[in-house]
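S1.2 Input.
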Amino acid sequence: VQLIESGGGLVQAGGSRRLSCLASGFEFASYAMGWFRQAPGKERGFDAAVSWYGGNTHYAESVQGRFTVSRDNAKNTVFLQMNNLQAEGTAVYYCNAVDGNTWSGSVGPQYDSWGQGTQVTVSS
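S1.3 Output.
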């Protein structure tokens, strides 16, 4: 399993950023995918998930209405559009496959291995 996240950078509070994750080593189109973040000094936590066909999405309460997850199965890529970023958005963002295609509450990763992540820093 290889997961390569990109698109991070420095963004002003209230700004937007679009992250991408290129996946390989498993049958991407057969798996739901998720985005997770790890802020400094905190554990990695769930942000968003999208079903294998892209028709069903689920978000953590903290990002609901501001983040949008999507995917392109032809390109083995999952995206995270982040709008109205705030200081708590400063974190390393990771993607991973996730179990299921409908969810409630937090969602856990499918695989133990992670990519290098992509750093997003929100400046005030």
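S1.4 Remarks. The radius of gyration is 13 Å.
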